[in-house]
Amino acid sequence: MDEQQATKILDQLRDGEVEEIHIKKDDFLLFRPFLVTRPDFKRFRGIAQRGGDVVYHYLDVARS
C-alpha cells in the first residue's frame, strides 16, 4: 500500500462513500503512518479483528 492508495480510501471513508474500510494485517504497518499524520486522525476509529486485521469507521465527533 502506498500513500496515494491510503489517502484515497481514507478520503472515501471520511466523505461517506464507504461505511468502513478493512485493513489487512500485512498492510497495517504500511497504512498506519498515513493515517496518523492526517489532521482528522482522531475521527478514525479502528477496531482490531481476530487474526490482526483492522476495521476503521469515521466518527462524527473526534475521540478524546
Can you tell me about this structure?
This protein is an alpha+beta fold and 64 residues long. It has one domain (3-58). 38% of the residues lie in helices and 20% in strands. The chain has a three-stranded antiparallel sheet. The radius of gyration is 11 Å and the shape is globular.
Supply the helix-strand structural class: alpha+beta
Proportion of beta-strand residues: 15-25%
Helix content: 25-40%
Radius of gyration using CA atoms only: 11 Å
Strand order of the largest sheet: 1-3-2
- What is the count of DSSP helices, taking H or I runs of 4+ residues? 2
Order of helices and strands: HEHEE
Give the terminus-to-terminus CA distance.
28 Å
What count of domains describes the coordinates? 1
Features:
3-stranded antiparallel beta sheet, alpha+beta, about 60 residues, 3 strands
Q: What is the structure about, briefly put?
A:
By secondary structure, the chain is an alpha+beta fold. Helices cover 38% and strands 20% of the residues. It has one domain.
